[in-house]
Fold this sequence. Notes:
By secondary structure, this protein is α/β, with parallel strands linked by helices. Among the domains are: 3-119 and 188-338, Rossmann fold (3-Layer(aba) Sandwich); 409-524 and 569-581, Isoleucyl-tRNA Synthetase, Domain 1 (Orthogonal Bundle), CATH 1.10.730. It is 45% helix and 14% strand. A five-stranded parallel sheet has the order 3-2-1-12-13, sandwiched between helices. Keywords: Aminoacyl-tRNA synthetase, ATP-binding, Coiled coil, Cytoplasm, Ligase, Metal-binding, Nucleotide-binding, Protein biosynthesis, Zinc.
Amino acid sequence: MTHIIVNVAWPYANGPRHIGHVAGFGVPSDVYARYQRMKGNDVLMVSGTDEHGTPILVEADKEGVTPQELADRYNRVIASDLCNLGLSYDLFTRTTTKNHELVVQELFRQCLKNGYIYKGTQKVAISPSTGRTLPDRYIEGECPICHAPGARGDQCDNCGNELDPDELIDPVSKINGETPIFQESEHYFLDLPALADANLAWLKTRQGWRTNVLNFSIGLFREVKPRAITRDIDWGIPIPVPGWIDNPNKRLYVWFDAVIGYLSASIEWARRSGDPEAWRQWWNDPATPGYYFMGKDNITFHSQIWPSEMIAYNGAGSKGGEPGQLGPLNLPEQVVASEFMTMEGKKFSSSRGIVIYVKDILERYPVDAVRYYISVAGPENSDSDFTWSEFVRHNNEELAASWGNLVNRVANLIAKNFGEVPPIAEDKMTDEDRALLNESAAAFDTVGSLIETHRQKNALNEAMRLVGDINKYISATEPWKIKDDADRLGTVLHVAAQAVLDANHLLAPFLPHASQKVWEALGGTGTFSPLPHIEEVTDLDDPSFHYPIITGDYVLGENLRPWKSEPIEVGANVAKPTPIFAKIPTEAVDEELARFESALNARREAEAQRLAAEQAKLAGDDR
């Protein structure tokens, strides 16, 4: 058994998450974790809501609530959505826990002690009208590197380079459109140049990464400069330095603290498990691989920033040093980044109404239909487009007509003719029977290898190819025509049921909810593929703070089936089945497109009214 950690990107808690988000970090990570558990590996899958930073401050100001109140609200929304999607976290927590604060401060102190954090000054943007510090992300301008418009004050999405707001050409505030002024402010910096050689040397040892991810990551080191890791803001983790820790207007920057969440969540999980040191098996053992799942806009933070923080904490950069009390931390085995998913040809944008929220789609359609579409048509290696017509087509043609209908045909024939799984009569076996059983048994290696190498689309296609071959077998053997040879009929139906059960194992990481129904349709009892649940917990270090977590029990041999061909149980009762998947009416496409257009029009009208109100106010001020 191998320990494997699956670290899932932290969704930002300033609003509900949409399908584009979970296509990048959610479903792919869950498929991988479920597969590895079925293989018998000890998987720890962690994440949580990312709750610090200026966007939450801005949204809270807009809504007239505190940042904590806003974070509390969306933490619950996001946790509920991800749990309903079936993402099998061992712990999904949040960055406003005291545990997270303590772990982040420990890393800061040791990196400072090792010399990789130092104090300096940088220019910060100030609003001329209010005198308040402007968030980096809320300043836009022309990128000084690639000259793309709309670059933010912390990063250019076009070229991926990190930026400082004063570097932008013609910067303006997204909040009110004014040109900011820049003033010097004292801050702490992470000395990325002192960590670059070690970080780059590690990157050049990586094997099996998606080519675009590795090339982009190495390209980040063409020009490396120190990055400020504190901000003039009153929402975030206090800076653990005398004279700074009590300063209400200085906090650690969100990108420094959020990536540490993988470690702090692992520590929180261990503390809640009753063995506070259990996390070390995943973080201190060099033989334990860590896989990080995210969208491509987060590559920088996982192949440069987080590894640099760990190298600094370990004392492994050019300045030397020693690990802190958490011990030497393992760098990522792989950064598994997906490309972007668009919607009907348009970039997802909650503010513009171009969005499908997880909650909304799960209210209208089966969860595994959503998971299947994300897996088979998601942005694994290139950008992809969510279209309602393709969503309905994949569900109707592949899940309902091919897979669901196959399960129902086999279960119905067994129920009608035997009422239980019949045995094989060896003397009635044909080469065709044996070929199908050999094919379904061999598929575990083929599909498993593809999942292990993060080619989940191909893995799912291989599993569905087996489904197609089982359908061909049923059509060729025509068991409904076998009237006077019960042994031959029983053999055909046993072979078909065995192949269907094998296919169900192969599809379980992708379709955990449906796999339970298939298992039961073929006479199986107990849990086939466990699902997560939400628990209300009290902060381990602050008894006044309560919040929901996603967790679950995923135990091979108890509530989880293995990744191998298991002999179907002869004599298991098989009743007349109910449909596993239902077809979605084709009219749903037009309904969804109309709903989409209505939302867009409502957004446009609201924006027009807002602009008109601003112009009227400006005209009044001029008078």
